[in-house]
Structure formats: C-alpha cells, structure tokens
C-alpha cells in the first residue's frame, strides 16, 4: 500500500425519499469528522456535498453500491418470477401441506 492508495467511501446508511426517485447516502469523511450526503437520482449518482473535485470517491463508491443493489433486486425479481411460475404450474414442491392436526381430522384418525 502506498500513500496514493485509493480511498474507500465509508457508507453509513441509505435513505430513500418517499414518493421520489431520490436516494441519499450518508458517507463518513475519511478523517472521521463529518458526514457527507451523496444523492442518487433514478439509480445514478447525482452529487456529493464534500469539497473534493467531482466526481469524488464517495460518488464512485456509492454508484458501485447502487449498481450492486440494482443487480440484486433484478436477481430477486427473476427468482420470484421463476418460483411463481413453478407454483402456477402446480409443482408439487409448493403444494400445501396439512399440519398434523388438520391431517388427522381430514382422515378421521383419532388417538
Ligand atoms: Zn464526496
């Protein structure tokens, strides 16, 4: 590691604004004295309120974080669609199972 090693943004949390396509990331400054706000509009990093020349490393890392999230969300949507198709096709794996008591009632088994 050298003095010129790339910094990594210390992302603290992510806030989604209700009813707006805007996300705000709180990122800790590298000297751990303040938080910066990085705004993301429709999945694209828009700005950062630190004093560095833009795009700063906060913006770069937040964009990477957003891209990863978008990918995960897309993967989850694809998985859900796949499972829903299996259920619609009547895959026995998803057939409802009776709990033990209901099973006993259903088949008149009394102990
Ligand atoms: Zn910044």
Strand and helix layout:
Layout: E1 10-16, E2 22-28, E3 35-41, E4 44-48, H1 57-88, H2 100-106
The structure holds zinc ion.
Zinc ion (ZN) binds next to helix 1.
What this model shows, in words?
With 111 residues, the protein is of the alpha+beta class. It has one domain. The chain is built from two helices and four strands; from the N terminus they run ββββαα. A four-stranded antiparallel β-sheet has the order 1-2-3-4, with helices on one face. Strand 2 (22-28) and strand 3 (35-41) form a beta hairpin. The termini are far apart. It binds zinc ion. Zinc ion binds next to helix 1.
Q: Bin the helical content.
A: 25-40%
**Principal-axis shape:** elongated
CA radius of gyration: 24 Å
β-sheet strand percentage: 15-25%
Strand order of the largest sheet: 1-2-3-4
Unreliable sequence segments: none
Structural class: alpha+beta
Q: How many strands in all?
A: 4
Main sheet characteristics: 4 strands, antiparallel
How far apart the termini lie comes to 72 Å
The average pLDDT score comes to 89
Helix count from the secondary structure assignment? 2
Order of helices and strands: EEEEHH
């Amino acid at each position: 590691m050298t003095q010129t090693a790339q910094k990594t943004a210390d992302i603290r949390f992510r806030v989604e604004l209700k009813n707006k396509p805007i996300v705000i990331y709180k990122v800790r400054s590298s000297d751990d004295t303040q938080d910066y706000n990085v705004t993301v509009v429709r999945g694209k990093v828009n700005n950062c309120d630190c004093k560095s020349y833009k795009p700063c490393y906060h913006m770069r890392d937040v964009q990477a974080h957003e891209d990863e999230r978008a990918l995960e969300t897309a993967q989850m949507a694809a998985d859900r669609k796949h499972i829903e198709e299996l259920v619609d096709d009547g895959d026995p794996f998803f057939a409802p199972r009776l709990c033990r008591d209901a099973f006993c009632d259903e088949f008149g088994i009394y102990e």
